[in-house]
């Protein structure tokens, strides 16, 4: 009799847990559908407003006081150059810092303090990085309101993201890979370079792309360091026809980026400028989705190579 009561009580508990699982499943699906429907509604409205403005002239024209002749040439060129500086600055440094903290740093109070601060910095509002960059890069180092200052500012913004992603990717590798490498006589660096980094590359790449996708849409830190809202010229070309064929003059040039150009247009009272902002936003969304699609493709190819 007691066994029958216990079995019946166990069935009641299991049934209750299944009901709660079903409730949480339904709540999760509803939350996901609300988020997706909201995004789709906003995206469709942006496509409807901005698609008619997409043309070759829109990509190759400078901003103008007349909405019908305004374009995003200086904005997308500035965005490309700023993101180039950001990637070159943050990605190698972030990966190296993540590898050091995970594999080489001694476990003591100092390194634990660094790890806590790196994790906390990933959640700091972007305007704080803008104020830091304004005091450090613009005034103290004398970089001015330049592409270099903007790229370094966004590099500081995504550096904690790259470090955390690198550490998590390395940490997910089974310990047996390390032990097998050491058992065959490999050194610490050989284990890291030949085993840990190749196996963790898909996860690291995902973190890098997520960081860059966040940086490409940031406005607050760029405005803080003095990016222009209206610019009708391009910086000097990085490639020259004469030796040494590479120029760094563009690093000190003033700039604008696409989020700031969109902010400038949406602040105008004319409705035509709102359509220009929608078209620029559509391009920015496509750029972000392309970066994420590239990350998915590269991660898939890397995992296929690891399996073989």
Automatic annotation (TrEMBL):
The chain crosses the membrane at residues 21-48, 73-101, 121-141, 147-165, 196-213, 219-236, 248-266, 278-298. Its main location: membrane. GO terms for biological process: phosphate ion transmembrane transport. It comes from the Bacteria. InterPro entries: MetI-like, MetI-like_sf, Phosphate_PstA. It is a multi-pass membrane protein. Residues 76-295 form the ABC transmembrane type-1 domain. It is found in: Cell inner membrane; Cell membrane. One of its GO terms (cellular component) is plasma membrane. One of its GO terms (molecular function) is phosphate transmembrane transporter activity. Keywords: Cell membrane, Membrane, Transmembrane, Transmembrane helix, Transport. NCBIfam families: 3a0107s02c (TIGR00974). This is Phosphate transport system permease protein PstA. It comes from Nitrosomonas nitrosa. The lineage of its organism: Bacteria, Pseudomonadati, Pseudomonadota, Betaproteobacteria, Nitrosomonadales.
């Amino acid at each position: 009799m007691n066994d029958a009561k216990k079995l019946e009580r166990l069935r009641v508990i299991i049934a209750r847990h299944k009901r709660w699982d079903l409730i949480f499943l339904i709540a999760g699906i509803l939350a996901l559908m609300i988020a997706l429907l909201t995004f789709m509604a906003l995206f469709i409205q942006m496509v409807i407003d901005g698609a008619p403005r997409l043309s070759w002239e829109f990509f190759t024209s400078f901003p103008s006081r007349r909405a019908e002749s305004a374009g995003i040439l200086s904005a997308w060129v500035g965005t490309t150059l700023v993101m180039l500086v950001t990637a070159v600055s943050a990605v190698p440094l972030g990966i190296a810092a993540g590898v050091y903290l995970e594999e080489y740093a001694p476990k003591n109070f100092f390194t634990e303090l660094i790890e806590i601060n790196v994790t906390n910095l990933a959640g700091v509002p972007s305007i704080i990085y803008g104020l830091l960059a304004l005091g450090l890069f613009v005034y103290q180092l004398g970089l001015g309101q330049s592409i270099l200052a903007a790229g370094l500012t966004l590099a500081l913004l995504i550096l904690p993201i790259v470090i955390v992603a690198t550490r998590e990717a390395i940490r997910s590798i089974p310990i047996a890979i390390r032990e097998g490498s050491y058992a065959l006589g490999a050194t610490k660096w050989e284990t890291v370079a030949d085993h840990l980094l190749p196996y963790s590359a898909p996860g690291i790449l995902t973190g890098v792309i997520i960081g860059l996708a966040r940086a490409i849409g940031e406005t607050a830190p760029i405005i803080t360091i003095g990016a222009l809202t209206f610019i009708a010229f391009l910086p000097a070309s990085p490639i020259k026809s004469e030796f040494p064929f590479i120029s760094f003059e563009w690093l000190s040039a003033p700039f604008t980026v696409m989020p700031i150009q969109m902010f400038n247009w949406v602040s105008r009272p004319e409705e035509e400028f709102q359509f220009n902002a929608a078209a620029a936003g559509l391009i920015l969304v496509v750029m972000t989705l392309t970066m994420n699609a590239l990350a998915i493709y590269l991660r898939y190819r890397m995992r296929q190579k690891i399996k073989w």
